[in-house]
Amino acid sequence: MKKGLLILLCLPLLFTTCKKEEAEEVLPCLCENSTNSILIPRINIEEYKDKNDNRNFTDLINELEKVERIERYGISSIPFLVSGKSAFISGNDTICDNGSGEGEVKVYFSEATPPFTFIYAINGINQSAITTNDNPYIINPTEAGIYTLLSFADANGPGAVSGAGMVTVLQAPTALFTTVFDTLSILYPSIQLNDVSIGNITDWSWNFGDNTPNDFTANPFHTYTDSIGIYQISLIVVDDMGCSDTTIKQIWIADEYWIYIPNAFTPDLDDVNDKFCIAYHGIRANTFTFNVYNRTSNLVYSTNNIQDLNFENGWDGKHQITGNNLSNGVYTYEVYYQDFEGWQHQENGKVSIIRDISNLSNDFECYPQGVSNCTFGDMIDPQRGFIYPTSEDINNW
After folding, report:
1. CB of 195 within 8 A of CB of 235?
2. Distances (CA, A) of 382 to 285, 292, 347
């Protein structure tokens, strides 16, 4: 069996045929229709090797005279002699212009011993040399163009290079969304989100910043149930080419004061709405004052302790000094307080004491459940509404 060696020819000329003088001496050549290097797979050098010469084949070939190589193989330039190792670059991938997509160009090493060192070019512009033990080595491109290998060497020396990779840059989408408000009240902490992203969007991922599951619809409606604070909403969109973009917006759930003061109660000792109670939120308790006056503007009840009017206590409709039951009728109240932000408030209103409902007409306005379902048990329950006596009832008192 005749032994051979790979030869890499660095040819400036274009070859479409290979010279083959003797079939048993030169096997078929690998020719390319380009100016890249050409590999001649095997060359018979037995005739140049003395049977008693123990030098290796590479040394013997390198001793051939330039003229003899040109004449024997029809080579117009002196070949660069290497072993069978080679590096091959390939890839046909896309990246997004905002860096959201990650493409790949791979460099494969064959019959080589690590570490591998190579230089590649993008559109003919040389890049820095890379040394690696990875096979294949993955290049994550950041720009469009044709990726080619310029040189390659392993632990034992240089090798052949071939192949090319192509990278295309795609225009990424632009993530955008709108909200009607960027500040919500703790009383109604719900928000409608509307996607207005630019691009052919196919996927959405909303994160509301409150540890609730992500939403994957285009225009979600979300309610915050935790507490007041600042929440960061993020939207990730993906288009039909796989490119993505992210945008964020902060939403403030603001505290808000409120106070509920009923307009009637029935201190008739039937254990239903026997006391006057208020509900509130965001009130500075130490600033609270509540006064009740009769029709002649005499003070009949007063407190500076907001806890006196909570649902565990409440006013029983008695005169604060004499302790006598106040008669049926409409009384005027005034209330002073500061909200949680320190703003001062003064409000006035009317409250009816109803001890004997037999003197009232059957015509009542009841909110919010309607007249047909109206009962006195609904008077001061802020969750269910309360009864408004009509003007006729008030005039009869």
Report:
1. yes
2. 20, 20, 18
Single out the residue of 118, 137, 136, 138 nearest to residue 128, CA to CA: 118
Beta bridge partners of 386: 367
Q: Could you please report the per-residue DSSP string of 256-295?
A: --EEE--SEE--SSSSSS-SB--EEESEEEEEEEEEEE-T
Asked whether 316 and 267 are in contact (CB, 8 A), the reply is yes
Q: How far is CA 36 from CA 28, 93, 123, 164, in A?
A: 18, 23, 15, 11
CATH architecture designation of domain 86-170: Sandwich (2.60)
DSSP-assigned letters across all residues of 211-246: SPPPB-SSS-EEE--S-SEEEEEEEEEEETTS-EEE
Q: What is the C-alpha to C-alpha distance for residues 208 and 239, in angstroms, rounded to an integer?
A: 21
* Burial of 116 from C-beta contacts in 10 A (0-12 / 13-18 / 19+): buried
Give the DSSP H/E element, type plus range, for residue 396: helix 391-396
pLDDT band at 379 (very low <50, low <70, confident <90, very high): very low
- On whether the pTM is more than 0.85, the answer is no
Number of C-alpha atoms within 13 angstroms, CB side, residue 300? 23
Q: How many residues does the chain have?
A: 397
**pLDDT tens-digit profile of 69-83?**
444 444 433 334 334
Pick the closest to residue 373 from 389, 383, 385 (CA basis): 385
What residues does each domain of the chain span? 1-81, 86-170, 177-254, 258-396
Residue 72 three-state SS: helix
Residue 202 — φ and ψ, nearest 5°? -120, -20
Q: Which helix (H) or strand (E) holds 106?
A: strand 105-110
CATH number of 177-254: 2.60.40.10
DSSP structure string for 319-371:
-TTT-PBPPSEEEEEEEEEEETT--EEEEEEEEEE-S-GGGS-S-EEEETT-G
Specify the amino acid at residue 63. Answer: E
With a cut of 70, say whether residue 388 has pLDDT above it: no
- Beta-strand pair 137-139/105-110: antiparallel
